[in-house]
């Protein structure tokens, strides 16, 4: 399988300096994209929510199976059956509220990532693609900290 | 900004041989992950929906602004304010119904990608992260083919 190369389009600036589980709902982050992508944000202010796609650059190795958040109430599952960071490709997606757009910067609320994390894409939240009314999840997911 | 390297974890097998807009709801696709990741799928069968993260390998260049689907009812917007493929990093996410899990394969319904597309991640759909009740979108999104 061929290697894929990509470059960050920008970075996050916020007050989250250490990893933790959950409790990010009120965090305000700024995402600063490279100035050459300033116009690529045109019209993003017409959305209430965006999906931030980022590279978890602190993850140095992957697990095949994993107990999410080390929580004893939670089973060991495959890494592709949870949202934990230690994935073969440590790419994550987080849906957040968009607060402001100015030039090459957006301000968002609820982002759960470390200051300085490289951003690889920003996508508007489209309910047609992203909203599932009747999703079934295993009960253990409700034991986790969000 | 440093380059990021990743490797596909698998590939899609389906009957979609040419790109088109919309009408993928009934398409059945098989995702075959590398055998070394077989156990990374343990427990995925407990979910009704998964998010497929993939590399749009047919995209050769990016746009800064773009008229989605070339639809004359739709404005020209920044590429980060739509879900079109010509992004700086052509990574896409599609949420689909999970039909079956057997060994290193899953079968899904509604995937909108070409046969042979490289898969870079599979994530379970967690409503806590992925479901927004009150998302606001610009009206033009409703003019597109889904």
Short note summarizing the structure:
The structure is a homodimer of 146-residue chains. By secondary structure, chain A is mainly β.
Overview of the structural elements:
2 copies of one chain form a homodimer. By secondary structure, the first copy, chain A, is mainly β. Helices cover 3% and strands 33% of the residues of chain A. Chain A has 1 helix and 9 strands, in the order βββββββββα. The longest helix of chain A has 4 residues. The model of chain A has no long low-confidence stretch (mean pLDDT 95). The interface between A and B is large, with 65 and 65 residues. Strand 1 of chain A pairs antiparallel with strand 1 of chain B.
Question: What are the salient characteristics of this protein?
Answer:
six-stranded antiparallel beta barrel; 146 residues; homodimer; globular; two-stranded antiparallel sheet; mainly beta
**How many angstroms separate the termini of chain A?**
35 Å
Portion of residues in helices of chain A? under 10%
- Major sheet summary line of chain A: 6 strands, antiparallel, barrel
Query: Strand order of the main beta sheet of chain A, please?
Result: 2-3-8-7-4-9
Structural class of chain A: mainly beta
| pLDDT < 50 stretches of chain A | none
Oligomer: homodimer
SSE ordering of chain A = EEEEEEEEEH
Count up the helices of chain A.
1
